[in-house]
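Re: that chain you flagged

S.,

Sorry for the slow reply, it's been a week of failed gels. I finally had a moment to sit down with the sequence you sent. For the record, here it is as I used it:
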Amino acid sequence: MTNAINWIEPSWAAPQQIKSLSTTRHGGVSKSPFNTLNLGLNAGDDSVDVLHNRSIVRSHLPTEPLWLKQIHGVTVSTPASRKAPSSKPFEADAAVTNIANEVLAILTADCMPVLFASKGGDVIGAAHAGWRGLSGGVLENTLQEMLALSPGLSPKDIVVWMGPAIGPTAFEVGEDVLQAFAGQGSTILSKALKPIAESSGKYLANLYLLAQDRLRSLGIEQIDGGDFCTFNDSERFFSYRRDKETGRFASFIWISAET
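Prediction finished late last night. Pasting the structure tokens below so you have them in one place:
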């Protein structure tokens, strides 16, 4: 479902007080090839335009989003870690919170944004899951930090939405990616990494399937989303693989303080 400015409202099993959305490439002021709602300050776009775009988004959110410095790693930003004094952006590829109206944000342009929410609506998480983060354990780390914020919470009490990412017909990878997921089991690998007949050592990777398998192995049962392809849907999405020089869209989640 999209609203008037083409932002995506996730369809998932999160409780009513959990609010979430993913932007598309529409609704901003950036010029080609970042047209128009580029939210990434490090993509090569005019920073004045990006900040204008962020202000457009901010007007639809309860507070300024928690923008991370994403490095394709597995570190999770937590309420405790954010209290530590620092003059630099927090380097992390996931964030969790149990604080109302604290907006978590993940920037992507092919990697997968993964949103987490407890069924009770008291704790949320968001992760940036490209193949490096996914194979390295960013989803596991996000879940672990969520459970730490809410004593008594178990994985089966968590619901997940997988946002827009490069799809299984477009994500060509090499042996390095296959080896990164080698410990995940031969059954899932044969389904999620399919050899390309005419290209030796090349595979089509299904990030959604790999993530689903990881999440289910952790005990999470309710997983929605996963039906996008940023590469093939140039009308709605930025794609680094497709365009190289391109913008970034964002996925947001927060616990609404409104009753």
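What I noticed first: Residues 18-165+223-255 form a domain with the CNF1/YfiH-like putative cysteine hydrolases fold (CATH 3.60.140.10).

Talk soon,
D.
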